[in-house]
Design brief:
This protein is of the alpha+beta class and 585 residues long. The chain is 36% helix and 26% strand. It has 18 helices and 28 strands. It is globular, with a radius of gyration of 29 Å.
Length: 585
């Protein structure tokens, strides 16, 4: 199909999908006995999964790339053919392509079966593709990496070899993307986590479980302290709840019906079954049910930094971004129908305030509405959806509506932020729940004296603390703003004679709650400065004879800016002002 008249997104999709087929042809030609699985276009590129006769090395990517360029230069047309299921099964069975036969069986009855062929390669595929390999630029693609992938994502299935690549319209676009990848690699939170000594993960002690090191813990403390203070200011109360609960709790909530695969296995104690909590909400409901409540008491805004445990498949674990144990900045609002609109407006305002405080300004909303199968009165859904939409519009946010995309138990808003590299991260969620209040028999006495069911809103501002920390590391490239930096000031004496003054400066800074360290190592001054810059410390105070005599400091910022002869008291006052304002510098 011609690329003319298509949107840029459609063009790139066809280019990448076609390039996946070209790569599959190259791999099959170079490694006889290869069986092919699936090869879709994905964001910024493509991949293909193979069952190979031997393991691939990174050096093999060069051979595959060279073969792909030969195929592209051959100017082979992409030809589509619709055939019967019987013909398709005979074709792929005859080639021993068991993965294609399995995919063929998954195609719904009544849906046509189509093949795409170019040169010597034929694939089971819906398309679309470019018209000819000549429409692909042989200098605008690159094979990036090799990974393992279970067939159809199931750990009980064979492990296949996945080759990732990227493809663009022009070599210039490819160069820009590769430069972007280099910047992403520099900012990778796993790499910076090691270099800055922030956290670690230990497979041998339990995959997907995070160990916070002292410097990482300092940042976490700042995040959590700010989070708690802001919640108190906004009318919330804090809760602390257990890490495990009896099975009946999760049966009542519905988690064992709908979420059992995502939970840790049961523990048996005192002839009862317990589970590590995957969510905090049933515990908050238990607190609600300890007393009867009047409409006069509502709303309750209850928040918890609650650690939860979810069984994520080992292949999906990824640094801090996908873990098995994490702390959720969770909250639940219990209110009357009359209070819903005001509460949602306030929740959204609060969410935006928190995200902006951490330096995120490009924020988009996504509204998910009632699916075909849902619990709760349709009138409840209408009220909830209208409240969510009104709140988004009141804040002037750009938003998209996902019709029917809500959970069966309620509509929701998701907020996505863009980081310094323009990548989107889903952080905040505001989710109605018409399911759990009913299942747990939650009530309040309304002004007419009748018992009624309260509205329940789940709400997370930052998501999980671990994932949010990972996003922050990558957003700032490890160079955290002053208020978050684990070490805000590095004190550097130029010679041993000034170490006593350096220690007194450190003491004074700490007295004002500034996080300061003094470098008393034997390294030369320039080496100490380089070390501080490598650790991305915002401020370095260089102290020598002049500074000691005048009780001043020579300030060097991590961006290279210098201010000499600055009075210590003035530096402290300036820094405290920056910390208090939470400037993202």
């Amino acid at each position: 199909m011609s690329l003319q008249g298509l949107s840029q997104e459609e063009k790139l999709h066809r280019i990448r999908h076609s390039m996946a087929h070209v790569m599959a042809e190259a791999v099959v030609d170079l490694f006889p006995g290869t069986k092919v699985a699936i090869g879709p276009a994905i964001e910024n590129g493509f991949y293909y999964d193979f069952d190979l006769p031997k393991p691939l090395a990174n050096d093999d990517l060069e051979r595959i790339s060279a073969k792909m360029k030969d195929i592209i230069k051959g100017k082979h047309p992409f030809q589509r053919k619709v055939i019967s299921r019987e013909e398709a099964e005979k074709l792929f069975s005859g080639k021993g392509e068991q993965y294609k036969v399995e995919l063929l069986k998954a195609i719904p009855e009544g849906e046509e079966v189509s093949l795409y062929s170019q040169d010597s390669f034929t694939d089971l595929c819906r398309g679309p593709h470019v018209e000819n390999t000549a429409d692909l630029n042989a200098e605008a693609f690159k094979l990036l990496s090799i990974a393992g992938a279970y067939w159809r994502g199931k750990e009980t299935n064979p492990m296949l070899t996945r080759i990732y690549g990227t493809a663009w319209e022009s070599p210039k676009d490819l160069r820009l993307y590769l430069k972007h990848l280099e910047e992403m690699e520099k900012r990778d939170h796993r790499k910076l986590g090691r270099e800055l000594d922030l956290f670690s993960l230990h497979e041998e002690a339990g995959p997907g479980l995070v160990y916070w090191h002292p410097k990482g813990a300092r940042i976490r403390h700042q995040i959590e302290t700010f989070w708690k203070d802001e919640h108190f200011k906004n009318g919330y109360e804090l809760l602390y709840t257990p890490h495990v609960g009896k099975s009946w709790l999760w049966e009542t909530s519905g988690h064992l019906d709908f979420y059992a695969e995502g939970m840790y296995p049961e523990m048996v104690m005192d002839k009862a079954n317990y589970y590590a909590k995957p969510m905090n909400c049933p515990f908050h409901i238990m607190i609600y049910k300890t007393n009867k409540h009047s409409y006069r008491e509502l709303p309750f805004r209850w928040a918890e930094l609650g650690t939860v445990y979810r069984y994520e498949k080992s292949g999906t674990l990824h640094g801090l971004m996908r873990v098995r144990g994490f702390t959720q900045d969770d909250a639940h609002i219990f209110c009357t129908p009359e209070q819903v609109e005001d509460e949602i407006l306030e929740v959204l305002r609060f969410s935006l305030h928190m995200l902006r405080a951490f330096g995120f300004s490009d924020i988009q909303a996504y509204l998910s509405t009632r699916p075909e199968k849902a619990v709760g009165d349709p009138e409840q859904w209408k009220l909830a959806e209208a409240s969510l939409q009104k709140a988004i519009e009141a804040e002037g946010l750009e938003y998209e509506v996902d019709e029917g995309g809500g959970a069966f138990y309620g509509p929701k808003i998701d907020l996505k932020v863009k980081d310094a590299l323009g990548r989107s991260w889903q952080l905040s969620t505001v989710q109605f729940d018409f399911n759990e209040p009913k299942r747990f028999g939650m009530t309040f006495v309304d002004h007419d004296g009748k018992e009624k069911q309260p509205y329940m809103v789940h709400r997370a501002l930052l998501g999980s603390i671990e994932r949010f920390f990972g996003v922050l590391i990558e957003h700032y490239g490890g160079a955290f703003p002053v208020w978050l930096s684990p070490v805000q000031v590095q004190v550097i004496p130029v010679a041993p004679a000034f170490e006593a003054y350096a220690k007194s400066v450190e003491t004074e800074l700490r007295r004002h709650n500034l996080r300061a360290d003094v470098d008393l190592s034997d390294s030369r001054m320039n080496a100490k400065i380089r070390n501080a810059q490598k650790e991305k410390i915002p401020y370095m105070l260089i102290l020598g004879e002049k500074e000691q005599e005048s009780r001043s400091v020579s300030l060097r910022k991590r961006n290279g800016e210098q201010v000499n002869g600055l009075a210590l008291d003035e530096f402290i006052a300036q820094t405290l002002k920056i910390v208090a304002s939470k400037e993202n510098v």
